[in-house]
């Protein structure tokens, strides 16, 4: 493995794998669930956007909590580093090894344990794929409380470990609220059963929160209990019709029209209130990247901004009336110059495809610098023109899109190829800008491998110190996902 690929990171003093270790793993899991051939390990070593690569020579695929426990107890005793991996769709380099850490993949931990139609609580293993869970729940009149473009690959354990947000957080809240309980394995192999399915439980510290969003650095999540909302009543007809969207576009200049976007957000929140399920935006250059690389067709001519507003409800007539009134009002106030509304399933799918496949399209455009920023809503878009002015023509494309309703901007800067010079122009400026506006340098993707040294732009020294103390308490030998999340001691 290469020491010089990441000059700022030194391999920790971890034990390198030998034949005896591999024999132990084979004894525990069986031959087929211990991958050691380089070609078999390759996909587990490279992240989704191919920004980060590790050199692990061993991928383990447990099926049960007890097997995870056996692996961790063994690794902890010998100080073998472990990188937990779900669907490997993470965007901050947290899911792949940095050096030769053993990859512990949850791909085979994909059993649904129970579904309670009355309480709406789903209990399942961590390796269940988000989309499969949603399809399963549809049969129970329920749905997953989160949805994201990576749904076909990401695992619920990965979602919980990153505290993933997604397209409907606005309506269904974040996972810290929806996860009722979980089971996790500590670094020393001890199994921690916090798998409560109760909505209310105030007995002592809420230990589950240690694992929600800690990106595999404090333990491995093996099971989760999630509160799932009912699918709207019209669901069966309405897989086609339950969701409505409108696309609104603006033709005035950038700044003015973003002011208009904000007015619409405010109106949507007030007028659509309880049925509003998503409020997303993308700018012109984002639409352009999708249209040019994925050959998807934009439903509207070119405009500086596009929005998707979606409603989820239980009464078709009521929802339609509300949406129409909202639409009429924003037309009357001339906030919208062009738009279309539909409940036709294929058209809705086309729109969501455009939105959900932006990351894929950006990936094909060149080398991507990716930023996932929370900003106060009135400053939501300000970082994009600031960056455009700063970088000028040295970037191929600087575009912004994201979860407008939640104040979460995805800033993507695309260049022909990576240079240190351009990186120096972007960072730390992007984080300083965010910090000055009291934003967050990671709204939903996490810190992973790419951002630990910037954590201080969003967290106080005292908070970071406490995080480090927790890490020492939970994982004293530092075997779990080393080099990730926490900044190095200076
Ligand atoms: P991985 O990528 O495998 O791992 C992510 C992190 O969690 C790593 O640090 C890993 O070590 C750790 N981990 C994984 N499983 C476990 C476990 N069982 N126990 C402990 N630690 C574990 N994210 C959003 O928040 N919102 C979005 O809208 C969104 N859209 C996306 C769209 C696309 C096309 C892509 C590629 C990614 C998107 N993401 C989004 C990012 C990513 O999908 C999420 O972070 C997702 O939750 C990661 O799940 P995963 O199973 O792929 O985890
Ligand atoms: C999304 O909302 C994801 O589509 C990915 O969080 C964001 O690629 C990105 O920048
Ligand atoms: Zn997102």
Automatic annotation (TrEMBL):
GO molecular-function terms, A-Z: (R)-2-hydroxyglutarate dehydrogenase activity; FAD binding
FAD-binding PCMH-type domain sequence ranges: 52-231
Subunit structure: Homodimer.
Provenance organism: Exocentrus adspersus
Similarity remark: Belongs to the FAD-binding oxidoreductase/transferase type 4 family.
Reactions performed catalytically: (R)-malate + A = oxaloacetate + AH2
GO cellular component: mitochondrion; peroxisome
Cofactors named for this entry: FAD
UniProt EC number: 1.1.99.39
Localisation per UniProt entry: Peroxisome
UniProtKB keywords: FAD, Flavoprotein, Oxidoreductase, Peroxisome
Official protein name in the record: D-2-hydroxyglutarate dehydrogenase, mitochondrial
Function per UniProt: Catalyzes the oxidation of D-2-hydroxyglutarate (D-2-HG) to alpha-ketoglutarate. Also catalyzes the oxidation of other D-2-hydroxyacids, such as D-malate (D-MAL) and D-lactate (D-LAC). Exhibits high activities towards D-2-HG and D-MAL but a very weak activity towards D-LAC.
């Amino acid at each position: 493995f290469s020491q010089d690929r990441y000059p700022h990171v030194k391999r920790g003093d971890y034990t390198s794998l030998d034949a005896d270790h591999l024999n132990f793993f084979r004894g525990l899991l069986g031959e087929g669930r211990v991958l050691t051939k380089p070609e078999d390990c390759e996909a587990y070593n490279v992240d989704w956007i191919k920004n980060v690569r590790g050199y692990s020579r061993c991928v383990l695929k447990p099926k049960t909590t007890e097997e995870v426990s056996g692996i961790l107890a063994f690794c902890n005793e010998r100080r073998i580093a472990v990188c937990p991996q779900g669907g490997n769709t993470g965007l901050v380099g947290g899911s792949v090894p940095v050096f030769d850490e053993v990859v512990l993949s949850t791909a085979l931990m994909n059993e649904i344990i129970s579904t309670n139609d009355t309480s709406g609580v789903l209990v399942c293993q961590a390796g269940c794929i988000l989309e499969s869970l949603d399809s399963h729940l549809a049969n129970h009149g329920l749905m997953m409380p989160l949805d994201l473009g990576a749904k076909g690959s990401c695992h619920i354990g990965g979602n919980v470990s990153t505290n993933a947000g997604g397209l409907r957080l606005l309506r269904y809240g974040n996972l810290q609220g929806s996860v009722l309980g979980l089971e996790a394995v500590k670094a020393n192999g001890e199994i921690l059963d916090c798998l409560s399915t109760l909505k209310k439980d105030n007995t002592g510290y809420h230990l589950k929160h240690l694992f929600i969003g800690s990106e595999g650095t404090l333990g491995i999540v093996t099971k989760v209990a999630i509160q799932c909302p009912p699918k709207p009543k019209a669901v069966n007809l309405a897989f086609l019709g339950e969701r409505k969207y409108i696309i609104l576009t603006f033709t005035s200049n950038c700044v003015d029209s973003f002011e208009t976007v904000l007015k619409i957000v405010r109106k949507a929140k007030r007028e659509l209130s309880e049925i509003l399920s998503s409020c997303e935006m993308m700018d012109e250059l984002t639409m352009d990247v999708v249209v040019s690389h994925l050959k998807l067709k934009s439903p509207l001519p070119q405009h500086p901004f596009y929005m998707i507003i979606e409603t989820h409800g239980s009464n078709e007539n009521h929802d339609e009336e509300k949406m129409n009134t909202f639409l009429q009002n924003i037309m009357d106030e001339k906030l919208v110059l062009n738009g279309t509304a539909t409940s036709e399933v294929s058209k809705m799918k086309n729109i969501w495809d455009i939105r959900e496949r932006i990351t894929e399209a950006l990936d094909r455009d060149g080398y991507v610098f990716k930023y996932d920023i929370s900003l106060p809503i009135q400053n939501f878009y300000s970082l994009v023109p600031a960056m455009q002015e700063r970088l000028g023509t040295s970037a191929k494309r600087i575009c912004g899109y994201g979860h407008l309703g939640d104040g979460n901007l995805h800033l993507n800067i695309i260049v022909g190829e990576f240079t240190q010079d351009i990186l120096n122009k972007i960072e730390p400026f992007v984080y300083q800008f965010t910090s000055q506006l009291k934003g967050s340098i990671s709204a939903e993707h996490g810190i992973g491998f790419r951002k630990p040294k910037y954590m201080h732009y969003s967290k106080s020294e005292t908070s970071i110190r406490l995080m480090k103390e927790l890490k020492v308490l939970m994982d004293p030998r530092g075997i779990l996902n080393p080099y990730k999340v926490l900044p190095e001691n200076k």
